[in-house]
Structures are given as structure tokens and as C-alpha cells.
Design goal:
The protein has about 290 residues and is of the alpha/beta class. The chain has 10 helices and 10 strands.
């Protein structure tokens, strides 16, 4: 039932995975850093089978969406503008937004500045990174200049085999079982003319961003979010002080914990994840106190 297509929005062409679903409210699914929509294939299928039209775009510079134009970079307001443009291009009327990790930060900004466009938020470990002190900014900017120059000169690193891809994926995902990484790796790779592969994301994403994460500003966005919010955790958030403190700043929120799922919960426990999200969406649509 899933199909893939390309949609023009905000001056770029975006790759979108879509499930037609049924008559229930649409769902916009936003992936995380260095991930892509196809990584959520099991989740998309389950939400679609439950009657929700599901739209899952690749962020700019991820998957098969356009990369940032030459000489530019990737910033959260760029992602936000892309998503707002996709809402218009796809005629999405107040979707539920389900968003993982980096996508959760974009979704929070969207719900804060365009509250009339968002029905609910399901944030999958998606409430932003820890705060950074102001004095790290000059060093980060230097690292950004050096890093982007090297990447632009070198290009994407070729992956010679599936085993190499799995080894590299384990660096960012040490808690994900190897067999799960092996199943996910082909979705993350694009074949090259010489018989190898490259990862589908722009290698500029692996450079240090030029500025610090401004937690104070992000929490101002959180304060503007009025829709119901579900926070799904693949670990106990009480073990991370900034998680629990920031999580409590949403005004209409509840949480679900998927024990041992880890950060990449859509890979390790897609059924449990969909169960929590669908229970929440059912509650929102009934107009009651949604719980997971």
C-alpha cells in the first residue's frame, strides 16, 4: 500500500513515502538525524493499516530529497520551512505529527509557531539535545569551517560492503542489535557506479554545526505548544536530568516508556511503538484525556 513520490516545496524537491490509510486524521512522520523515511516502513504500514493517511518525507539532505544548495548549510529553520511548505503542497489538514529525535525538535517548533496546523505531537525521544554554554560557540564555528571545507573537498565516503556499513552504523547505534542494523543498512545506502555504496545523507551533516543549541530559546517554543503531546522513551528519562526537566515544560503531555527499546525504537520495537502512538491518537480523536 505504500508508495513513494517527489513533492516540490520551499524551493526543493522532497522524497516522500506515503500510505493512503483511510478516513482517520492524517499523520505526518518526521525522521531523525542521519535517518530517512524508509527507516520507518513498519511504523508507516501499521499507522496506515489503522486508517491514518501517513506522509513521511525525507528531510533536506537526507534520503532521496534534495540537498542544500551549494555554499549553504543545514539549520533548523530550514527544516521548519520545508515542513510548512510540504503541509501546503500536500494539502495536509491539521495532521497528527509523529517525530523522532531531530524531527521532534522541528515538530515542536512547528506546533509552537503554527499551532493551527498541528492536531497533536508524538515525540519519540525528540525534545532536543542538552543545553550548551555560550562560550563553546567560537570553537564550534572554527570546527564547522574546517569540517565543511574537508567534506566538500573529499565528498561522500564510499562503503565497500554491507559489513562495513553495519560497522559504521554501530558507531552511532551501539545498543542496536547487529541483526537489526543489518536489516536496516540496505535502506540507508545508495548504490554507486563502481559497485559500492554511499549513505543517503549529505556528508555535511556529519560536521560540527556552527552554533550552539540554544536550550532557553527551544524551551520558549515548548511553552507555546498547546496541542496534546505524547513523549515516548526507549529508556527511563529520569536517568537524564535535562530530559525530565524539559519534558515537564509541555503543558498538555503524557509519556510512555518502551523498556530496552533504546533511541532507535522504530527499529527495535516498532509494534510496541505503534501501540503507544495509536492509543494516544485514539484518545485525542475521542476528545478525551489521551493516555498511552
Amino acid at each position: 500500500m505504500m508508495r513513494e513520490r517527489f513533492v516540490a516545496a520551499n524551493g526543493l524537491t522532497h522524497h516522500v513515502v506515503e500510505h493512503p490509510g483511510g478516513a482517520r486524521a492524517p499523520v505526518l512522520l518526521l525522521h531523525g538525524y542521519l535517518d530517512l523515511a524508509q527507516s520507518f516502513a513498519e511504523v508507516i504500514a501499521r499507522l496506515g493499516a489503522a486508517g491514518h493517511r501517513v506522509i513521511a518525507p525525507d528531510f533536506r539532505g537526507h534520503g532521496d530529497s534534495d540537498r542544500a544548495p551549494a555554499g549553504s548549510y543545514y539549520h533548523f529553520p530550514d527544516y521548519l520551512a520545508d515542513v510548512a511548505g510540504l503541509l501546503d503542497a500536500l494539502a495536509l489538514d491539521r495532521p497528527h505529527v509523529v517525530a523522532h529525535s531531530m524531527g521532534g525538535s522541528v515538530a515542536t517548533m512547528l506546533a509552537a509557531v503554527l499551532p493551527e496546523r498541528v492536531r497533536s505531537l508524538s515525540l519519540l525521544e525528540g525534545i532536543g539535545p542538552p543545553a550548551m554554554p555560550a562560550d563553546v560557540a567560537p570553537d564550534r564555528t572554527r570546527l564547522w569551517l574546517d569540517g565543511t571545507a574537508k567534506v566538500r573537498a573529499r565528498g561522500a565516503r564510499r562503503v565497500a560492503s554491507l559489513d562495513e556499513a553495519v560497522t559504521r552504523m554501530r558507531i552511532s547505534n551501539p545498543d542496536v542489535p547487529v541483526e537489526t542494523l543489518r536489516a536496516m543498512a540496505p535502506r540507508a545506502l545508495r548504490a554507486t557506479d563502481d559497485g559500492g555504496w554511499v549513505f543517503r545523507f549529505d556528508p555535511l551533516h556529519q560536521t560540527t554545526a556552527p552554533g550552539r543549541f540554544d536550550a532557553e530559546a527551544f524551551e520558549a517554543y515548548i511553552a507555546r505548544v498547546a496541542c496534546p503531546v505524547l513523549q515516548v522513551w526507549g529508556r527511563d528519562p529520569d536517568g537524564y536530568a535535562y530530559f525530565s526537566e524539559r519534558a515537564e515544560r509541555f503543558r498538555d503531555t503524557r509519556s510512555a516508556v518502551l523498556p530496552d527499546a533504546g533511541h532507535m525504537m522504530h527499529w527495535t520495537q516498532p509494534d510496541a511503538l505503534c501501540g503507544a502512538v495509536l492509543a494516544f491518537l485514539d484518545g485525542v480523536e475521542r476528545g478525551g484525556a489521551a493516555t498511552a
